[in-house]
Amino acid sequence: MTDLDALKYTAEHEWVALDGDVATIGITDYAADKLGDVVYVDLPAAGTALSSGDVCGEIESTKSVGELYAPLDGEVAEVNDAVVDDPSLVNSDPFGEGWLVKVTVDPAAVAELLDRAAYVALAGGDA
């Protein structure tokens, strides 16, 4: 089980786990629940440069299509091909096997993201 308090979060309902200078990024269980059953995931390719706040992918569900925003500046180091092949992992294990991308970042930038308490407050206490 992932320690949700150790993660950082964005207002766009993404989580970030930092390991050295590599940030693993996914969407929160709150976002996955609001989207409904995820049926398609479009992610940036490895080597793609990301700019914080820019759209970098898409998550399609039976209810809607949501955009994936880059939470940090960096370069995509790895894409979770398992999620591309089986998008339902985003629903079944959003903080584990349902991660989306790993991005090489400036570790100091992660400190600017929301902590768990701030994210829960942003989500109206439902996160």
Name the features.
2-oxoA_DH_lipoyl-BS; 9 strands; OB fold (Dihydrolipoamide Acetyltransferase, E2P); three-stranded antiparallel β-sheet; alpha+beta; single chain; six-stranded antiparallel β-sheet; 21% helix; 127 residues
Give your account of this protein's structure.
- The protein is α+β, with helices and mostly antiparallel strands.
- It has one domain: OB fold (Dihydrolipoamide Acetyltransferase, E2P) (Beta Barrel), CATH 2.40.50.
- 21% of the residues lie in helices and 34% in strands.
- It is built from 5 helices and 9 strands; from the N terminus they run βββαβββββααβαα.
- Strands 1-2-3-9-8-5 form a 6-stranded antiparallel β-sheet.
- Keywords: Lipoyl.
The SS-based structural class is alpha+beta
CATH class designation: Mainly Beta
Q: How does the major sheet shape up? A: 6 strands, antiparallel
Q: Give the second-level CATH assignment, the architecture.
A: Beta Barrel
- Please count the helical segments: 5
Helix-strand topology string: EEEHEEEEEHHEHH
The poorly predicted ranges are none
Rg measurement, Å: 13 Å
Strand numbers in spatial order across the main sheet = 1-2-3-9-8-5
Helix percentage range: 10-25%
Mean pLDDT: 94
Q: Could you tell me the number of beta strands?
A: 9
Relative strand content: 25-35%
- Assign an overall shape: globular
CATH superfamily: RNA polymerase II/Efflux pump adaptor protein, barrel-sandwich hybrid domain
**Tally of separate domains:** 1
CATH fold type = OB fold (Dihydrolipoamide Acetyltransferase, E2P)
Distance between the ends: 16 Å
